[in-house]
Amino acid sequence: MAIDEQNHGVPISAFLFSAKPEAKAVHADYNTALLQKLLGEWKRGMGRNEAGEEFEIAVGNTDNDTRERTALQEIWAAILLLLCMFHVWQAWRNRLIKHLRGIPKGEDREEVRQRLVPPNGAIYEDAVEQYNTEVRYFKSLKARRNALDSSKGAAGLSFLSYLHSYLKVRDFWLAWSVAGAKEAAARLGVPLSDIARTNNHLESFNGRIKGKFFAPHMRGGRLPRLDYWVLDSSSTSRRCFQTSSQSGQKDGL
Fold first, then answer.
1. pTM, full prediction
2. pLDDT digits over 209-231, tens only?
3. Furthest-apart CA atoms within the chain: distance in Å
4. Which end of the chain has the smaller Cβ count within 10 Å, N or C?
5. Cα of 80 vs its chain's centroid, Å
6. How far apart are the two ends of the chain, measured CA to CA in Å?
7. 170-192 core/surface letters (b: 16 or more CB in 10 A; e: else)
């Protein structure tokens, strides 16, 4: 899905997956190789422009699915992949709740929470230094004899250990930092405010397709015929896009 000048989501392609009967969910039944093959075929199908250039994507927005991100980067090596910040903040929030459970509710827990703000600056080296500063602080806190301080230090270090995966590689730090959004704006030649920081457009579209258009055709858990779904999805996408464009801001598109 692309986003037009009116901030509306525009569906440009759809990949339909039929999961194996034993699969618990469709997203658990595909891998990087399959996605890479489909994306490669799509890119080839898009052809070339008048200058003979292949179809390229400058900026993309995904959730933190390494299979999808790896496949996209294999097909479009220069793509800048941003992370959906709704999913990022949700993951961070869940981890904070998990690691701060051992600290009594109130000022002590809130004090630790306030210090554990991910370093979302404009310069990578500054973000790394901010992270290291917090590591040193919580190490010193954990070394104290006071049981509460030691508990706060251990909780802080546990969360920072998890957060390290978001920071250890500059390219991945760009995916969620303000610096990445600024880079995306520069590549696309648009204001920073026009850079989508969530997948809301796509989630809204998918929800409408699954809940309004596809649901009536699901019967008894049987696997759908591929030719039927291709036909149905083609007409559905047109109707769904028309509905989305007409509803505009009302539906979050």
1. 0.77
2. 777 767 666 666 555 555 555 55
3. 71
4. N
5. 13
6. 12
7. eebbbbbbebbbebbbeeeeeee
